[in-house]
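Protocol step 4 of 6: structure prediction from sequence.
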Amino acid sequence: MLLCIFHLTQINMTSFRLAILSLASAVLLGGCAQLPPARSAADTISHLRLIGEQRLPYRPAFDGTVVGGLSGIDYDAVHGDWVLISDDRSDHNPARYYRARLRYDDKSFTAIDVTAVHTLLQPDGSDYPSSRQAAARGGVVSDLEAVRVDPQDGSIWYSSEGDVKLAMNPFVRRATRDGRFQAELPLPPLFNVDRQRRVGPRDNQAFEGLSFAPDGKTLWVSLEGPMYQDGGLPDPSHGAVNRITHFTRTGAVLGQYVYPLGAIPAAPGTGKNADNGISELLAISPTRLLALERAGVENDAGVYTTYVRIYEIDTAGATDVSGLQTLVGAEYRPATRRLVLDLNDIGLAHVDNLEGMAFGPVLPNGNASLVLISDDNFSKKQVTQVLVFEVTR
């Protein structure tokens, strides 16, 4: 299905003809958003078939920047390319996003070509400071984790996890294609960080998931893990709960729902680390979304294994918990979830720290495509992995 959105103001015959010509040109060039077919309230994902994998080399240089930490991805249907956001806290280069071309069809995935980089700017027009600069002189730390192309005008929306230690709240902001600040989504006080760690998002577990609804009129935002007041973290024996929130484009909360986060899939080595959380959301209907659940488990030798699963969740019938200050002891119905794909079971030689997920162009066979990207954390022990899937229903 082709979806094209345009606005006419002060309509006269000349402007109307120009708009129609522009729209026709976009259709002929394949520039309109090619959404997966049959999106509806009953929409669901039946199967994901791996088409192929590509990797970027370790810390490649591009236009004076170091490419890495790619924690979010989205497809720009109007321009036929992809946006990739880096979670570099301006420590290597100022906060930024990249544009790229992914060459694939329903049979193979052959190349990734980075084509541009854009610095994301603060409201005053300056670069985001590094963590060290922010700690010394103040300023907003940018730990950018998700990116989406606005289906209405092509602007760039992105989320930041904030920083509990520096008392910096998470945020969702909007920028022009060249990175200039446009607006910030107003958020309820529930998402303010607390240096005492009594309430609010946990450090490094705030806004990881971001998605427009299929009609482009509303937004979904997910926390990576439970807030302090909502209970403990998952472990190998027990899951946890975190919140996903449905916003209008102006920040009004339409609903907030509990996501039943799974237990960590394996036990860590003695005294070693392990975690599990939502690393991305992708809406497929007014109530259904795909959730990318990603766990990392460190063994006795200090080597991490990443476990990644894609769930389809449904908020229909779930309790709106936006009025609950804590989930501990509260009565509510969580969103339901169904496993769509366990990436550790599909024969990949390696599953890395996958954090980004987006629909791509419709494949030659008429099915939708889905792309995942991993965040290598600028580490030699990890890779930037890009996976392309065919979506069937």
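Step 5 (inspection) to follow. Confidence is low (pLDDT under 50) at residues 1-42.
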